[in-house]
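Open question from group meeting: does this chain pack into something compact, or does most of it stay loose? Before anyone orders reagents, we agreed to write out a predicted structure and look at it together. Recording both the input and the output here so the notebook holds the full record.
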Amino acid sequence: KGLTTPGLASLFPETASGVVWNRTTKPDVFHLGFVERVRNEIREYRACVKDGDVEKVNAQPCVADGWSSNIETGAHLFRGLYSAQVETWLKSNSAEQLFFISNNKLKSNPVETVAEVSKFLGLPHFLKYSMTEQELNKRIQDKYPGFWKEGWVIQGADQKFPEFVRPELEAFFKPFNRQ
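Structure tokens returned:
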């Protein structure tokens, strides 16, 4: 059921306290193209935002998977709803327990960024240099032999973003970004 590599499965125990694993799939979601999947999600979420007021959002009853970022269910948009995610985290964690970093910073300066995360977590500084792609692939293969077979990727080859969808996404995210 899901993770089969013992090393990875131990990182994500099925019975973790307070964690619910959703490995269900929307029927036939992946036969649709990216644009159609995103437009379907926009329609689902739009019903949750009353009069464009993000304060009146109630996603649980109107979005099939609730506030899910599970890509297996076709959830593409939730990852961009940062305020909703932070609000959820703050229900069980204090603000001092959250640490935010940007993807751009992690990519542009990984050693410094990992050092900041380590310090925040109270761990010793352990990353001394950035690995080359070959070093990273060898390390992954040695430690998690099933990584590639399970479909995991480090830097996926994405299709070019369809620019004609950008205005639709900007309009969708606008009330959420105000928050």
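Observations to bring back to the group:
Confidence is low (pLDDT under 50) at residues 1-27, 60-65.
The chain has two domains: 1-94, 99-149.
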